[in-house]
Write a structure and sequence with these properties.
Elements (H helix, E strand, L loop, with lengths): L2 H15 L10 E9 L8 H14 L4 E4 L14 E8 L1 H18 L17 E5 L19 E7 L4 H10 L8
Antiparallel strand pairs: 1-3, 1-5, 2-3, 4-5
């Protein structure tokens, strides 16, 4: 997405929400991609495989996330590696957003739109994928283990209604109400 497209989009949202000042128009601040790695404790190779997949998907090196608490029933100790996380901003963020809307979501079988109920009451939207093979960069023939991931769109919207209007203006395919 180039600057003129972003400007046109902001004007469209500004008119829809009837906002007077252009700096008050809600926009996406960042996109956070989070991948909890199954069996990260039993085999360190799983973390490396997930890391390569996340680098391919986002084009950015992920940060390793560690457990905050020990949980005996899961055989988990504080500080153990449990997942990976990438934060996208700027041009890379908008390119990733376009890829999700135009390429990834249409590839999902029986796709009828994303849920309208995944907002967090603060204007942020979360989207989960049960497997990472829906991304075109991942060759499903070479995947040893299917991995799920969550994507959170952090916005500057004051509430869920503003965020919904903004994401609809950005062509996010929501389910029919």
């Amino acid at each position: 997405m180039n600057n003129s497209e972003i400007t046109d989009l902001k004007k469209k949202v500004q008119e829809k929400l009837q906002i007077k000042h252009s700096y008050s128009v809600p926009q996406i601040k960042k996109i956070v991609v989070n991948m909890g790695v199954k069996d990260a404790l039993s085999d360190k190779k799983n973390i490396e495989l997930a890391k390569t997949a996340l680098i391919q998907i986002t084009g950015q090196k992920p940060k390793v996330t560690k457990a905050k608490k020990s949980i005996a029933s899961f055989k988990l100790r504080e500080g153990d590696v449990v997942g990976l996380m990438v934060t996208l901003r700027g041009k890379r963020m908008y390119d990733f957003y376009e890829k999700i809307v135009a390429i990834v979501l249409p590839r999902i079988r029986d796709f009828r739109g994303v849920s309208r109920s995944s907002f967090d009451k603060r204007g942020n939207y979360s989207l989960g994928f049960s497997e990472h093979t829906v991304f075109p960069e991942i060759d499903s023939g070479k995947v040893e283990k299917l991995q799920g991931l969550e994507i959170t769109f952090v916005t500057s919207a004051k509430n869920d209604e503003e965020a919904l209007l903004m994401l609809e203006a950005m062509n996010m395919p929501f389910q029919k109400a």
